[in-house]
Design a protein that fits this description.
The protein is an all-alpha fold and 72 residues long. It has helices at 3-28, 35-71.
C-alpha cells in the first residue's frame, strides 16, 4: 500500500484515540466543567468527528484509485 495511505490511516487512528480520550474525560468530569468548558470541549470532539469522516473518505478514495491503477 502506498505510504500516503498508511500515513492517513495512522493519522486517523491517532485522532480517533484522542477523540475517545476527550469523550471519556467529558463523561467522567462532566460535573466539574463549567458550561463554557463543556461546550468548547464538545465542539472540539465534534470537529474531530468531522475530521475523522473526511479522512475516512480520503482513505477510501485513495484505496479505490490504487486498486484501479493496479488493474490497468
Amino acid at each position: 500500500m502506498k505510504d500516503y495511505i498508511e500515513r492517513m490511516k495512522k493519522e486517523r487512528q491517532e485522532l480517533a484515540d484522542k477523540q475517545e480520550k476527550l469523550m471519556k474525560f467529558l463523561r467522567v468530569h462532566f460535573a466539574q466543567l463549567d458550561k463554557t468548558e463543556w461546550y468548547l470541549m464538545s465542539s472540539q470532539s465534534s470537529a474531530m468527528s468531522n475530521y475523522i469522516r473526511v479522512l475516512d473518505a480520503r482513505i477510501t478514495h485513495a484505496e479505490l484509485k490504487e486498486n484501479q491503477n493496479g488493474m490497468d
